[in-house]
Amino acid sequence: MDGGNLRISDADREAAAQRLHTAMGEGRITLSELEERLGVVYAAKTFAELEPPLADLPGASIAPGPVTPPARKESAHLTTEVGSIKRTGDWPVPAQLRLTTSMGSIHLDLTETRVPPEMSVDVSTGMGSVTLVLPPGASADVDGVRTSWGTVSTKVPHSPTGSGPHLVVTGSAGMGTLSIRYARKGLKEWFSA
Predict the structure, then answer these.
(1) Which branch of life, at top level (predicted)?
(2) Residues 103 and 28 in one domain
(3) Residue 68 belongs to a domain
(4) 72 vs 80, higher pLDDT
């Protein structure tokens, strides 16, 4: 996107207005020019519209800053008592994830999002269930998960494959279940395979 077409904020308008007031104080523009230019500044909606009233003043450009995406959180804790948490699609996956459920369920689909190359996942299932659906080529080390009467089921490689993210899973399955797998094939994929 062209930076000049980005919308400006009130702070950008105020910075431009301040520059015009300074220019008048320096004797660069007259009072009537100030009023005329302020009208343009306060009516501006984009950086491109903000340029003309400042164009002939030294050091007066109000340029847009770089647009940066929001930072990915380093860690997150998802918890439920008896309810369910389900995440699918493109969602921000942190490098450290803590999943806690008493009797509820947590289902996280990581197939359509950007997953960090290495993730740390700590689970506590109580009597609930945690399901992690991984993208192709992903792997998961579940040696750090303790079980009492619970179940740990994984259908992905234990060691990193080099072609997908690697999860190091720790915690406890209690009397619940932890399931790690790839996405299931739909009918269309079964018949075309």
Answers:
(1) Bacteria
(2) no
(3) no
(4) 80
How many CA atoms within 13 Å lie on the side-chain side of 155? 11
**Cα separation, 59 vs 145, whole angstroms:** 61
Residue type, 108: L
9 backbone dihedrals φ, ψ, rounded to 5°: -100, 170
Looking at the chain, the whole-number percentage of residues with pLDDT higher than 70 is 87
Query: What's the distance, Cα to Cα, between the start and end of the chain in Å?
Result: 41
Total residues belonging to the chain? 193
The arithmetic mean of pLDDT across residues 56-74, rounded, is 64
Q: What token pair was written down for 128?
A: 């609930």
Angle at 184 between CA 136 and CA 113, to 5 degrees: 45
Q: Is residue 100 within 8 Å of residue 78, measured between CB atoms?
A: yes
Tokens 């860690």 belong to residue: 75
Residue 188: how many CA atoms within 13 Å on its side-chain side?
0
pTM of the model: 0.61
Q: Which domain holds residue 155?
A: 75-184
Alpha-carbon span 99 to 91, nearest angstrom:
16
The tens digit of pLDDT for each residue in 99-117 reads 999 999 999 999 998 889 9
- Beta strand spans in the chain (E): 75-80, 84-87, 96-101, 105-109, 118-124, 129-134, 139-146, 151-154, 166-172, 177-182
Tokens of 22: 């300074």
